[in-house]
Amino acid sequence: MSESSSRVLTEPTTDAAARELIAGLALRPWGQVAASVYESARLVADASWLPGHHQRIGFLLREQRPDGAWGPPEGYALVPTLSATDALLAVLADGLWSGADLIAPVARGLDALSGRLLATHARALPDTPALDLIVPALVESLNDRLVRLDRVVADRLPRPPLTLPAGLGPDRLRAVRAAVAAGAALPAKLAHFYEVLDATPSDAGPTLTAVGASPAATAGWLTAAGPDVGPAAHAFLRELIRDGDGPVPCPTPITVFERAWVLSGLRRAGVAVDPAATVLRTLAAATGAGGVATGEGLPTDADTTSVTLDALARLGRPADPASLWAYETADGFCTWPGSEDGFSVTTNAHVLDAFGQYVNVRPGADARYHRAVERLSVVLPAHQLPEGPWQDRWHASPYYATSCCVLALAEFGRGGAAAEAVDRAARWVLENQRADGSWGRWGGTAEETAYALQVLLAAPTGAPRVDDAVARGHAYLHQPSGRPHPPLWYGKELYCPTAIVRATVLAACRLASVHLADADRSVVDCGYQATKTTT
């Protein structure tokens, strides 16, 4: 056996890695999310009094792309580029940082905005939350700062006024700000965007930890009201800044969201988990009449409630999913009742998981529960794209949406439409594997490869081609890249919930290693790196 044909096991087994991951859920109760360009830039622009200001400026400078933009490809770069350019322009105007270091990055950011990103029609922009509030607010802020710049500095920057993308106007932003000024109560969802609304949270006070699960919204409130008004929120921001060495994540806190997705995903893959009692207590809140929210400062939603109920059931604590009836609509189930535009296939897939778990445990449950399972078994295939995948509004990758739908339909779906949809999705995944064994929208990623493997391993297909694809995908996951997981989840900008992604990869590794062992492949189950021996 040659050295090159053997890979040394250097990572813990899946179960050990899962235990470490689950222990971290209790140790970091606000959740584990990668640093955000948008949020960190809002703190630079609006809350320079917070510690870590210079570290956040340095983070923004490091994160700028060679083409002058920030963030992921395509229209996903618009919001982070607006936020970062506005923040660096604010620093430049303050004169507290060397202008020589900032003029070129600001100029490149303005060029990226005026030359490409703002020239995109609104219809072609991704449907990230509150895009129609954030983009007009930041364009207005940038134009105001450019007008007020010192002439010596201004002469070194491109100065045409930035215009909004065609099809996107300032009317909604103005209407919301006018409602705030008039004292109107805003929908709870809008708390997440308070930093662009000139608003004060309705529950503002000394015990409030986070405004809308957003460091930027929290910092915006404290900047306007004074840090002494919200000592708990001030402490929250200081701890986030300390953990990230300056930059901050978003959304945060995501306590229930993170715990539900991690535990549900690991248990579904057969990974042994034993969460702490404090973790289970936060999940148990989903059994209440109103469901549960992603984290403090956000409204309850059907997606988090469903995955939490699924996790509890897989942990041997099934609960009645009656709280989900509040989210039922003529089309299926909405994420938020009465305040949502569009249909989410992943929310409906997770609702199918929750109802499917319940009727499996209680087959004599009210017929309404069985009808929900039957209905969603038809609704989800009806939203499948002709080629075989699903696409959703909460994740940039079709592999996430396809995995959610396939897992729910394969386990709980009823009827021929569900089975056919699963088979079509598996064929699509097989046809789109990359040469290096990975899958991904813009390039191969561990997260998207894990979703693709879950699809293949949920489909009742035992063809040799599937075995080969699984082996190649499994091998890809065991090649340490040294690169962070890219942001793919929808927020104000794309973000990465790192613990959830880690759990997804661990779950796929377990499923793939079991499948390959059953197919007489020589594979050792592990967290991220495999041992494969060839004689």
Report on this structure.
- The chain is mainly alpha-helical.
- It has helices spanning about 15-25, 35-45, 55-65, 80-95, 100-115, 130-150, 150-155, 170-180, 215-225, 230-245, 255-270, 275-285, 300-315, 345-360, 365-380, 400-410, 415-430, 445-460, 465-475, 500-520; strands at about 290-295, 300.
- Strands 1-2 form a two-stranded antiparallel sheet.
- Strand 1 and strand 2 form a beta hairpin.
- The longest helix is centred in the last third of the chain and has 21 residues, at about 500-520.
- The N and C termini lie close together (about 5 Å).
- The model is unreliable at about 1-10 and about 520-535 (pLDDT under 50).
Comma- or semicolon-separated keywords:
single chain; mainly alpha; two-stranded antiparallel sheet; 52% helix; globular; disordered N terminus
What is the count of helical runs? 20
Structural class: mainly alpha
The share of residues in helices is 40-55%
Radius of gyration: 24 Å
Q: Spans with pLDDT under 50 lasting ≥5 residues?
A: 1-11, 521-535
Backbone shape: globular
How many strand elements?
2
Strand order of the largest sheet: 1-2
* Beta-strand residue fraction: under 5%
